[in-house]
Amino acid sequence: MRALVLFTLGIAWLTVTSCVIQRGSVVPIGPAVQDTTIVLSPLKAFMRDGSIVVYSDGALVTNVAVQGSGTRYSLGLVDSVSVSEIALDSVIGIEAFQHDVNVGGSVLASAFGGGAAVFGTGLLLKALFGSCPTIYVETAQGQELQAEAFSYSIAPLLEARDLDRLDLTPDRDGMIGLELRNEALETHYINHLELLAVRHDEGIYVVPDERGQPVGVRRMRPPA
């Protein structure tokens, strides 16, 4: 996919995109023969309150809890907090990504309060560069990779808007060349794509905040 967009104003450019990414088949895991399942690949738990817990390094699933180093994202992916354990009765479903499930069976279906335990095959997008749509900008030196969209949209329930900073300058005719690539041959559903120009004073660096809004900052310092 290739597009040329005409813009003449602004210094900081950002792309606003909205999509959902799906991948692969969903494979049900059979009945468990033990009460504990060790998941070695990335794991995602859907909570009853609408939040999502992502265990990038896998987790231990027992008949009462999911244990591991995880991050809990609020509904809409606005806020996040670190977690080490969540009660299984607050979970409505779990998906594991890739095929590294070390089981003596699987998760007890009864552990989900009578609900079926289903693990989905796929890929945690944070774990592999290129599985998200990538955005390239035309420069004097050729095409330059500047953004990887939808880092958190790893399933339909996580569909969300994304805002990414682009460093680009229109050519003498006021034209900007952008290319959106599907480099991992995933299935991407993009509902909306928009290019924003943000006017700002010299010395201001424009970045998206945690709520997906462009903000200007100055006197940036490296983390301690």
Describe the structure in brief:
By secondary structure, the chain is mostly beta strands. It contains no helices and 19 strands.
Descriptive tags:
2 domains, eight-stranded antiparallel β-sheet, mainly beta, 224 residues, disordered N terminus, four-stranded antiparallel β-sheet
Describe this structure as you would to a colleague.
It is a single chain. The chain is an all-beta fold and 224 residues long. The chain has two domains: 2-22 and 127-200; 26-122. It is 0% helix and 49% strand. It is built from no helices and 19 strands. The strands form five sheets. Strands 4, 5, 6, 7, 8, 9, 10 and 11 form an eight-stranded antiparallel sheet that branches. A four-stranded antiparallel sheet has the order 1-16-13-14, with no helix packed on it. It is elongated, with a radius of gyration of 21 Å.
What's the average pLDDT?
67
* Total of helices: 0
- Classify the helix fraction into a percent range: under 10%
Low-confidence stretches: 1-11, 19-33, 99-130
Biggest pleated sheet: 8 strands, antiparallel
Distance between the termini: 41 Å
| Total domain count | 2
Task: Indicate the proportion of strand residues.
Answer: over 45%
Order of helix and strand elements from N to C terminus = EEEEEEEEEEEEEEEEEEE
Looking at the structure, what is the overall shape? Answer: elongated
